[in-house]
Amino acid sequence: MSSRKSELETLRADLKVRLSRYEAHQHREDGALEKDFEEQAAQTQNDEVVDSLETETRAELAQIEHALERIESGVGDDCESCGEAIDPRRLQVLPYTTLCINCADE
Ligand SMILES: [Zn+2]
């Protein structure tokens, strides 16, 4: 299952790039004083969107790291909850999953 691993590594690299973009956005210098109220409101809204995207991306990244750790210890294809093999078709669609379809549904 080395293809799943390299897929996850690619995904992880992508997410890290995305995350650094969000961070750059959040930590930029903002000239809030020069902006009128409407612009500030739009920016605040934008910041909130980026903020939730950042949280989402972090969670996704953590899940990928977790799946990679399991692959590296040789249990990446087994369900983390019941220990049964995860359907390879499921792994193809969701390479970062660590649960079989039955356990994920619960
Ligand atoms: Zn299971």
Provide an overview of this structure.
This protein has helices at residues 2-26, 37-72, 88-93, 101-105. By secondary structure, the chain is mainly α. It has one domain (2-28, 36-105): Up-down Bundle (Four Helix Bundle (Hemerythrin (Met), subunit A)), CATH 1.20.120. Helix 1 packs antiparallel against helix 2. 8% of the residues are buried. The structure holds zinc ion. Zinc ion (ZN) is lined by residues 79, 81-82, 84, 99-100, 102-103.
Keywords:
Four Helix Bundle (Hemerythrin (Met), subunit A), mainly alpha, elongated, 4 helices, binds zinc ion, 106 residues
Describe the secondary-structure layout:
Blueprint: H1 2-26, H2 37-72, H3 88-93, H4 101-105
Zinc ion binds at residues 79, 81-82, 84, 99-100, 102-103.
Bound small-molecule species: zinc ion
Determine the CATH superfamily.
DksA, coiled-coil domain
Instruction: Please tally the β strands and state the result.
Output: 0
Beta-strand residue fraction: under 5%
